[in-house]
Design goal:
This protein has one domain. The chain has 3 helices and no strands.
């Protein structure tokens, strides 16, 4: 009789997806605020894209957590989703930096 203990790594991963989404949400708020203050339509559009990306990342984290509650042995999410979330996180960082540079000029 063998019992496989998957540990808490899958749950930590699901929580990390949610934290990533929330950090993108904070970046979106910074970018939107900068866009409003500087009256920059580019930053407003960028902030809206980040808001949508944050919602998707949080939804993926919630979906993964619900899926793990049903089947703890489920493996990692598909690689396109992982690549997408990493891309969104980098995009959020660059957007935050762009909002700082644009509002300083």
């Amino acid at each position: 009789m063998s019992h496989v203990d998957p540990g808490l790594q899958p749950q930590r991963t699901a929580l990390a997806w949610t934290r990533t989404g929330l950090s993108v949400l904070l970046n979106a708020a910074v970018v939107l605020r900068s866009g409003v203050q500087a009256d920059q339509p580019f930053l407003l559009a960028l902030g809206m894209v980040l808001l949508i990306a944050a919602a998707v990342a949080v939804a993926c984290g919630g979906w993964r957590a619900r899926r793990l509650s049903v089947d703890i042995t489920h493996s990692a999410p598909p690689w396109p989703i992982v690549v997408g979330v990493v891309g969104v996180a980098w995009f959020a960082c660059m957007a935050g930096l762009a909002s700082i540079v644009i509002t300083m000029n």
